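Question: does this match?
>
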Amino acid sequence: MAVLYAKTAPGGDTIPPETWQRDGDPLFIWEPPASGLELAGYSYAIDATPDDVVETTATSFDVAVGRTVLSAGQHTFSVVAVNSAGNVGKPVSFALWVDALAPSVGAITPAAGALVNSRTPTVRIETIEEHSGVKDETLELLINGSPVEAAYDATTRTITATPVGAFQE
C-alpha cells in the first residue's frame, strides 16, 4: 500500500499531514495494494504498530464511529494489508496533529485594577497553548478599547506591550 490520507468526514475537506488542525475525529482512507497474495483485510492502529490480525476489509477507518475523538496532541495512524496466509505488508502511516482548544490567558501584569505609577507601563500576558502555538499575526491587544502594538515570545509564551498614551493620569 502506498496511498493513505485523511478527511474531516466523508465528502469533507482533506486534512494535510503534519499540520495542526481542529479535527479530532477524522476519516482515514487508503488504497488497496496493487498486487500480492489474496488480500484478507487490514490491520490498523493509532499511536501503535498494527498487528497481523484483520480488523476490517474496508479501505477506511472513521474515528468518529465507535470512538469519541482523538486527544489534543500529535498522533500517528498506521495501516497494513494482511493476506490470506497471515502475512502483513509494509505499513503506511499518517501523522495527525490535533489542537481543538483555543489559546487561553494565564497571568496578566499589572493585574486588573492594580495601580501603576507610570504613563507607559509594560503589560505582560501569559498565554496557555499546549500545542500549535500563538501566531504573531493573529494577536490583537486592546487597552481601554484601543489596539496597541504587541510582541509575542514563543519561548516564554508571553505577549508584551508598552502602550504609549493609552493610560490617563
